[in-house]
Fold each of these.
Amino acid sequence: MSERVPSNTAVMDPTTQVYPPVLEGHVVGNPKEGLGIDDLKSLLAASDPAEVSFAPMPAVEVAPTEVSVVAPETAPVEIPVSISGQHRAPEQGGRHRTPESVTEYAGRHRVAETTDDATNEFSVNSIVSRLSAENQPAASQAAQERRSARVLARMANFAANRRTTREVARDSYDSARGAVRRTGSAVVGSAVKSGNYLKTNLKTGIEADKRNIQQTRDALVTSGRSARAHKDVLVASIKSRMGKIAEGTRSGAEKTARAAKVGANVLKNAGLVSLGADAMIVEAIGKGTKHVAVKTAEKTSAGASRVSQEVKQTVNHARENVADLRLASSQAAAQRAKAKAVRKADKFEARALRNQWRMSPENAAALNENLRRIRGE
Amino acid sequence: MNLITPEILHSLGIHKSETEEAVLIEHFQETLNERVGITMIDLLDDTQVEQLVSLTEKGDEDATTKWLEKTVPEFDQLVRDEFDILMGELAESADKL
């Protein structure tokens, strides 16, 4: 609060050492406390209207904020608003989308980043830079930029609200399609640069053949079908190499790889060092067949030998067993004969004992002697 | 860069006004670019797509070609196949144009 010197009519209060408030334009009351509403009311009631003077406000020079909107030199200017805000077509994957970059996003809706003065198209950056006059102070420029961004966001919202969902979806699709085309164009350019097929083959081929129109068409249609089949195989091959392959296909590929590995090992074991030519493969198969035959024969011979040895051993064992059996048999027979003789001796003794009363003592002694001999006593 | 010429259209029995032929040739080239782009992007993962798009936007043809030769060595074969396929379709539908 300024301490403006009161007018000549004011008299300082000796007790408070301050001037009474004076209504003069910008009323300045007690510089420490200011002037309240009640003070004003009481002052107006007590004051003589004639003493109240309304001095005009001193002129305050305020530097005007120069906001200059510079339109592009060429008109009309269309703002290509690629809005894909809240509402998107179902096939676009939902209601919301993530902004692809910070510069593409303004408020709720996206604004296509297609800034290029050469194409006379607006974008956030280009408009902000145009609105920011070079002579503006830095603070003013920053405020201006914020204001411009807000205005653009509002305009984008306004434009978006007037667009149908179908239009928004189409814009997104067209944008994506354009990106794909630009990428494809670069790839085609590289392909043309790396080989002459695309530049010369078709034209020179047609001219060289000098065929009629129908023959040319037929040739191209056939070539196209062949190319389609080739492309399918090529894409599958590249995907397989890059690891982008379906699970079922991966399983099949792994089986094939395993089979190829087994086959390669078979050929390698057959003595084949390198592959590449049919003749070599045929030769390898021949070698492999012979190798297998030889190995089979060797195995057969070795087996026979082993069997022979086993048979020999078995025969020897059998012979030994037979000898043992024979020995055992002989021993058993001897025992049986001995037992039989013993039984005969016993029978003879029993009969002799029964007839003993009819023998003479000499004959009985001779018989007993014979019995003891038979029994081995 | 357009890979086909009015002479090629004539050899297929396609005769239009100069303007229509120019539009047809432009459409052919855009379709080829789009198909090649779709085929190529489908082969790449997100990181590779970002790299390719970045190179494309820079307009560095040599760097793009080297990147393609390193990442997808068969890219020229793919372009050739797409070109032949499209030419076959053009020849097949020449009478309807």
Amino acid sequence: MDRALNPERLRVALGESGGLPTPEALSDLLADAEVRLFQGPHPIDPRLVDTAWYLHSVGSALESLDLYGPDRQRAAFQVAGHIFDLALADPGVELIDRLRFTFAGQVANVRGGLNPNAIAAYRWRLGTRPDRTSFFSSGVALEIGSALLAYDTAWLFPSLRAMRTEVRDAEQAWGFGLSDTAFGAAANLLQGSWDLLRYLVYGEVATLEAARTSLERAVTTEASANDLESRWVAFHLWQLGTDLQRGSLWAVLPPDTPPSVARAFTSANPRILTLWPPQVRLLDREREPYALDPNVRRLVLSLPTSAGKTLVAQVLVAEHLSRRPTGACFVAPTRSLCREIEQSLRRRMRFLARPSEVSTSDSLFDLIQDAETTVEVMTPERLAYLLRADPEAVLARFGLFIIDEVHSVGDPGRGWTLEWALSSLHNLTRTTDHRIVVMSAAIGNRANIAGWLDPDDTGFHYSSAWRGPRRVHSIFTTQPDWDKEAELPRPNSNSPERVSYPLHGVLHIRPTATGRVHQLRTTQPVGSLVLRRPTRARDAMSTAFRTTLAPLAVVLGRSGPVLVICPTKSEAARLASEIADLREGEGGPGWLVELASARLGAEHPLVRCLRRGVAFHHASRPSEVLAGIEDEVVAETIHYVVATTTLTEGVNLPVRSVVIAAQGAFATDGDFHEFITGARLLNAIGRAGRAAKESEGWIVLARNVAFDRSDFARLTPGEADLPVQSVLASGQALAELANLERELAASADIAVSRAGRAIEDFLSYVWYVCSLSDDPAGIPLEGLESFLQSTLAWQQLSRADRNRYRRVAQAARERYGRTPASTRRRWSRAGTSLASAAVLDGMSRAIARECLEDPSVLGTVDSSLDLVFGGGRLGLLLELPEAGVSWPRNQRTGQGTRPIPFDGVRLLHDWVEGRDIRDLADSYLAGARDPEFRLEQLADYITSVFDNFLPWALGILIGWVNEALGDQTEGNEVTLNRSLASYIRYGVNSEPAVALFRAGLRSRVVAVAVATDYLANRHSPDVSLRDWLCTMDLADWRGRFAPSPSELRALLEFARPAQTRVAATLLSGEVATIPIRATELALPDQSADLRPIPGDPEPRRVGVWTGDVLIGYVQAEHHAEVDAVIATGIPVSTRLQTVDGALVAHLQMIDLNDEGGAQQ
Amino acid sequence: MTEPLRAFSSYFDWSRRRWRYVRWTRVAGAPLPAPESQELARLLAARIVEHRLRGGSAHLVAAWARVVSGGSPYTPAEKAALSAYLAGLDPGHDPEHLQASVGEYLWYACSVDDAVEPPLVRIEGPKFHATAPGGDGLVVRRDGQLFFTLWEIKKHTGSHLTRVVRDGYGQLSSNAARYLAEYSAVGQTVADPELARLYATLVESWLDGSTSAHAGVAVATSVAPDQCFSTMGKHFEHLGGTDPWHGLLAAVDGLPAFSRRVAEVLWTGL
């Protein structure tokens, strides 16, 4: 499937040269090498290596010699890069040759336009490179070159500085400069690399020119003609200078962009020193249109997973913040994705000169975030709520809207929320300078989407199929060995006669879309097929197809993390256990095993799996355990994750290999339903191949049928398979529309219609549109028409169906006009169907009345919960169509399956009090015998009811109750606690615990522990939670709260005072001053270094050192910022001083211009 | 330092041999009395010093000559610098590596001094900053047209000569594309356009078996037999020009001891 294996591309690369394999033969050699990789590391055919060097020399030929032409040279580099990648997979290659292959491959990949593969090629070196390399040691040129092309700044800055010192010392001691001697090539390479690094990180154009001069001199200085290696490395860096400059953010961003924007990317981890080709194209101001053009107000981006669209979005955000006074709103479909985006944005925005705080709100109803918040990452539901509540405030606050995964407008459950939010936003900003950016990896009908959001075609619509890592597709089937029939013993004469055949796994690998399919058959059986005599019907004693996948997963795992996608949670759990069975004695991460034991019980199957480096991941698990699994997959201590598609849709977790265990499952109707298709499939297989970590990803589709070559087409859904269809244009919605039409014909009240979810949502939209007008009768007809036309549905409906919707909309508008003003406005803001709003409205009035009768019911959390949910109200709420409750059952399936009755209000109390989820499952769902299933059922209930529905419904209720109380008490302070919704969502009962969750903590146990400790031990109520936490350090936190590493990082972010500017201050060249916790060895006016404490568990405390003597610690409140600076590798000077009796550290970036270099 | 180049060559008996299609050069040094052997070591050491100390460090050649001829000792600066420039060639170095390095310089000196071969245009000599002992070299000559010979250079001290030569064929065959790709990249920057094009197409010429591509295997040894390199053609059959295979056997009596003497001369006073 890959460009490099395409014989036509190979023909272009190879040219007419004899003595080389033909394009077809080369394609076969490459395919063989790819296939062998599935079996484990393997040397590649020497002919391939020769060909790679040949192609490398073709690619390297100077343009001025006019030998090959740019297309051939680019193709040559792409193929050469591919071969060197394959060569590196052989662990038997000696170190010096590995370095040569690495550098050659990096050069080829960068010049072939596959930049992330250049970083991936170096990855093996990260764990093996020495901390320091002497300038005078052999192999130094390759070390420098390969680190530079991998942007390994953490090694480069200290190492190159140390080497430059070596050179300077030598020159002083010897009395002459090295640059025109036998060391000249190396010295000039060092100088050129240093300057190139400085250009890429700091953007000083003069250093780029200096780099070119030094590198050219390294190649051409006659005195060092015999240092071939240094010259070779220098030659390529010299030639790459233009490519690197073209991709550098410093060159791509408009010249008047504040430098801190580029620094946010070149300094923060992961560092982006150069952009990838589609990113460059998007931002290239030399071409019209381009993404940063202020006249481009609508941007539709369609790029595959791993093509870097998120980074483009980050650039847009940073550039927007640096130029405009408004903030940015980033919308992602799930809260977990929002958190991920928030964290990665925060890492960058802390380097911006404009004080920028990034936040995400789990709460739908916080109208205004902290005043400092400039970027808010939110779900479509929250954006919809904000637009309903106060659209003007939304437009005043945000000037840039970025909508990720925009294809989710087609989601039958939640798609309409996004569609109407986006449609409204689009309509409200048609003539303003607000910018809307929509992105997706799975839009088949791009023109349709563009026509929706950019009807005048004045925006920028960009799509590209580019991606860094290659992908190899394969299909797994099983094959019985019919020659090895074995008769099975019959326990008694009534038992049927059975025969068994060993089953072998067969992997059908197609390295090229057009080439032949290679087959690998397991040497050992992966199960058995049992047939009955004489019918030869398959017997239930046959090995489950799922089980045969376990050995496959284990083999794939030798090359990197494996994600197996199962259609159901139970399949995922079973397959994970089966993989774990095959991995005896291999350890998983200890802390996560402990955490899972504590949360789920030591006997839980997940705990056993984790011990062997295997996990199963689905929404029915405690969120801190899921977060831990995600972290450890990234850290590669967990090699196997078995999950449902909720993982691939909710979290960005790339891996080396993805196995689709099945594309569907048997439903209760007995039929097999495929649902892992289209965008969902694309999302899952898009995780294969981690950009910048590996140059190749493997995708295996398991098929429990005989192999059929045409099944490969399943892995490449075309545009026709990826339509983004408005919910309102679906057959279901049109059927519901017909229902409503019938109801209206029978003179039913449109405001209480239950014609169906989609049509009710549409009515709610019309209601909202009407509320935007000051006209007492609602919006004028033409205004309503404009809003209807701004929907995606209007692009996709037939003229006749549009008219049907139009008529219904007019009926709703009329009903709006007849509804009392206060009621209709309230309903328009609810975001529910009108019928549900009517229910909530009645309920809120009743609650308000009860409050007024006895205000003491508002006194405690418990009494407030009883007030709101008692008297059967919880049941009433859960019956609303919006609730989507997952009711716990006693067993998975089969006869006798029934719901388990329990006291929902009591459970709610226990949940909010912080009771352990396992205890709750045992107490309330004892009717489910299987403890694992019991826990899963409760978790599903908590997710659907406590995490999603109730906080949303309660938010509406609280708002309306408090409105009513305000009206009737004339401003007296009788209010229902607004935090109740958050208490329910997080399962806590205090504000401090909620604050921790909002700051990114995911563990309920840790949040409760911190909050309880704080409330019990703070010296005064005036001491904030943050200040109290900052009286301790990481070691104290570990001892008191037992947080996981990811929770500690969240606590560190929480501890960071808003608007802390250590990183941005330092990077702008100014002095940043932070207090330190000094040991008795600390003295004023000492120079010091900041570096982590060796031996500390991650995240490590940051120590203040003079040499090897620890003289202090960076305090918790500044840890996150200082850690970010250390991670850049950028040299920083530290000087201690006593200020007002306390020791502080003055930090300043070392001026690299003052350091000098080799004598030229 | 100016050393009469022929003086070094005159210590050897040069003969051209041919075995089937392989031509080879036998450069045989006879056993020498100690003072002459010492002088030969000094001459080779001088060639090494000249090779390594060029450009801005060329003044150290005179300092080295001064010390070797019994003059005033090195200044601390001279000593420190020379220790770095002559690294890897000190008497304390691993003998195997040392002999291989001396072997490379013997090949280099013989290639430069060879008066029979077509005129030398450019030679890519022993590596400075070498990552491994022994290795490759490239010689470009003009015989009407430019042609190049890619050399694999081996030393023979213990095992059978035929095995060493066979290893040389194998290494050259395995690594030629890589060696040439590296030379190709940097060599194409030379000012002469004809030479630049030759360099830019080195790998292509080699794999195509172009007439401009020649293979060479050189062995430094203690004793020079009369027959050698007889199977070379089989290993590089794809090379299609006239006389594309070339052997060089450079014999110095007692190569291990000689190598050590060269190192001792080089490091005199260091």
